[in-house]
Structure to design on (326 residues):
């Protein structure tokens, strides 16, 4: 394996924390396999240099080299229509064996299309295993967690494109100053006209270690019940798409599913959620706890722990127990 390419997203001229996690994972793999870890940084203008600039941050998180591509059109939201051409050009100029993206809304638009253009294998949100002999294995739960798909990187004779869930605690470090390679944007997407932008009032769940999800079984109280239990546990709250639909509100309720917010906390508690494929497709928790009064609810098939009970009463009992323990 010669080159690992990690796509970096910027928010307010700062690398997205999830992108830094992906870069750290790339660093670990590159160190074990003797590869070069490249950070691909498309941005509207060249970053300013200073003690804590974007290049320095990428260096400290494990980038051997930073591929810098600047163009005014790259100020647009990251989509394949706007950023795909420069990412593809970078892959042609510097053929990677592995391309890593943080699993953001933009990356989920870019990554599969990039894989198709490169004739590469693609896997969304896999678990990565690297053994002592340098063998890479990628595993992804499918069919609501009832089955797993496994790929061995050493068996592939083509590049691999991955989107990675946030929430990993991979520790990696690099030199204080990575080599910067400025790549002229010989190819750029057509872009699009932005006609409006609305801020998202809902909290970001990507870095939460504990998440409580309110399901449709709670009706209009889904967000309230989830929020109260999450607050007691020091976590964040969200709802299933069906719960949001029944409550007729999505403004302040993060929707957890494959097309909404994808989460990968240490602990996820699903309250009165049946366990649809769409909902579970957005959950990559280490431990899933299901609370549902329907003993036949599909979510019990994938949960590590299950409690057959009314979710409102169970959530109140858990909060009471936490208060008594201080």
């Amino acid at each position: 394996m010669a080159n690992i390419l990690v796509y970096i997203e910027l928010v307010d001229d700062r690398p997205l924390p999830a992108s830094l996690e992906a870069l750290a994972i790339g660093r670990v793999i590159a160190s074990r396999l003797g590869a070069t870890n490249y950070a691909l940084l498309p941005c509207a203008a060249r970053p300013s240099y200073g003690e804590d600039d974007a290049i320095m941050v990428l260096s400290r998180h494990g980038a051997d080299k930073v591929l810098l591509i600047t163009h005014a059109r790259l100020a647009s939201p990251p989509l394949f229509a706007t950023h795909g051409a420069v990412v593809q050009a970078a892959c042609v100029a510097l053929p990677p064996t592995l391309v890593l993206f943080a699993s953001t809304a933009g990356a989920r638009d870019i990554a599969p299309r990039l894989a198709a253009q490169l004739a590469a294998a693609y896997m969304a949100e896999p678990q990565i295993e690297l053994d002592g002999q340098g063998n890479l294995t990628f595993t992804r739960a499918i069919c609501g967690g009832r089955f797993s798909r496994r790929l061995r990187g050493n068996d592939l004779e083509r590049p691999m494109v991955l989107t990675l869930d946030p929430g990993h605690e991979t520790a990696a470090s690099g030199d204080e100053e990575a080599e910067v390679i400025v790549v002229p944007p010989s190819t750029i997407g057509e872009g699009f006209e932005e006609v409006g932008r609305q801020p998202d009032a809902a909290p970001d769940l990507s870095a939460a270690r504990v998440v409580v999800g309110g399901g449709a079984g709670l009706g209009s109280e889904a967000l309230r019940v989830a929020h109260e239990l999450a607050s007691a546990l020091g976590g964040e709250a969200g709802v299933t798409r069906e719960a949001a639909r029944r409550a007729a509100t999505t403004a302040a309720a993060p929707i957890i599913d494959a097309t909404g917010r994808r989460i990968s906390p240490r602990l996820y508690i699903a309250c009165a959620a049946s366990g649809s494929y769409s909902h579970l497709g957005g959950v990559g928790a280490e431990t899933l706890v299901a609370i549902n009064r329907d003993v036949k609810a599909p979510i019990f098939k994938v949960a590590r722990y299950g409690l057959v009970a009314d979710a409102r009463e169970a959530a109140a009992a858990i909060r009471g127990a936490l208060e008594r323990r201080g």
Summary: The mean pLDDT is 85. The radius of gyration is 21 Å. DSSP finds eight helices and 17 strands in the chain.
